Amino acid sequence: MSVETYYRDSWAEIDLSRIQHNIYELKQTLPEQTGIYAVVKANAYGHGDIQVAKAAEAAGVKGFAVALLDEAIRLREEGIKAPILVMGWVRPEDAAIAAREKISLTAFQPEWIEEAGQSLSPTCPLSIHMKWDTGMGRIGIRTVKEMDELLTALDTSLYTLDGVFTHFATADEEDATYFHEQQERFDLLLSAFQERWSGDVEIHTGNSATAMRFPETMNHYVRFGIGMYGLYPSPDVKAMDIMPLEPALSLHSKLIHVKQLPKGEAISYGATYVTSDEEWIGTVPLGYADGWKRSLQGTDVLVNGKRCPIVGKVCMDQIMIRLDQQYPIGTHVTFIGRQEEEEITSDEIAAHLDTINYEVTCMISYRVPRVFVQDGKTIGSQNGAR
Ligand SMILES: *Cc1c(COP(=O)(O)O)cnc(C)c1O
């Protein structure tokens, strides 16, 4: 793995052993015949796509799922040979590129099949998975009539139909009523499909929440995203206590300036924070351009195993924090992760931002170097700013 140099004191640490642990945990609950597609879209939810993909492959995942053709091509360029499925819509004129790279695409529109087919040739057919919209309302065929239209358009000299799949909208909620409705719709479409199609296809329906909660109904594959990164799909699923996941990402920086201010001195843009006493103020080189949003003003970071609040407005590249005492320059500051007995989780940050943990790891920007750790040793790094 490559080590890229960087010249700043803020970094995200990605513990690849934890990613592998989370895969093993899921594997133990899945039936023998159910394989795992690691979902590494969006730079592996901000963790670093290539490094995560290689670690996941070593832990036994059978393939990868991404959202964009660009993401799939990046994996191929970095030497990933396993099956890759693009789960989103790809422009039909780009289908030949996918075919050449042996990347599977998602299909659900007969006109797309016609148009993409014009650039394909029987010497290099395109692998497709047919998407069924059973209630997510996003992409996919909804009826047997639409399935028939798609299958009629499908020229089997240009395409191989390798999979059918759907996506659940509420699998992370305690109430499974709507999940079961979607499951019923899926079963109806599946029996209609099996009457019409004799070839072998992979069937996959489950994301992390579905795979963790209903492992026995997962058919050939699951698409394992958030759980692989050690985060629970929702507080509901976390409360179910199904398996012990370990968060792979932590976010760190260092104090670059420390000063003692008298009472009544203002901090940062707008002078919104004023010291209420003599206070030790530290400056930390991480800001909203690194993904630490302005609305995180007032939340805590960890210094010396203790919580310290962010005071004043978050700047583009820096924040100020109130320290409990003087600390030397270079003192470790943790934004996400553990210091001694204290921990700040992505779930805590998500709650502050009124969002989900998925968005927290995705929001850490390209500018923050990723440092990859395996079995406690640093094995590589990626500097997104260059
Ligand atoms: C992102 C995505 C997944 C992964 O979902 P997680 O909840 O992160 O496991 C699975 N399937 C589809 C279609 C997706 O878009």
Automatic annotation (TrEMBL):
HAMAP family cross-referenced by the UniProt entry: Ala_racemase
Record-level GO BP terms: D-alanine biosynthetic process; peptidoglycan biosynthetic process
Residues where N6-(pyridoxal phosphate)lysine is found: K41
Keyword flag Isomerase: yes
UniProt protein name: Alanine racemase
Record flagged with keyword Isomerase: yes
Family annotation (SMART domains): Ala_racemase_C (SM01005)
Active site (record annotation): K41, Y269
Alanine racemase C-terminal domain boundaries: 248-373
Cofactor(s) listed in the protein's UniProt record: pyridoxal 5'-phosphate
GO molecular function per UniProt: alanine racemase activity; pyridoxal phosphate binding
UniProt keyword terms in alphabetical order: Isomerase, Pyridoxal phosphate
Pathway named in the protein's UniProt entry: Amino-acid biosynthesis; D-alanine biosynthesis; D-alanine from L-alanine: step 1/1
Lineage of producing organism: Bacteria, Bacillati, Bacillota, Bacilli, Bacillales
Family membership: Belongs to the alanine racemase family.
Enzyme Commission code(s) on record: 5.1.1.1
GO CC terms in record: cytosol
Gene3D superfamilies tied to this protein: Alanine racemase, Lyase, Ornithine Decarboxylase, Chain A, domain 1
Residues annotated as binding substrate: R138, M316
Annotated catalysed reactions: L-alanine = D-alanine
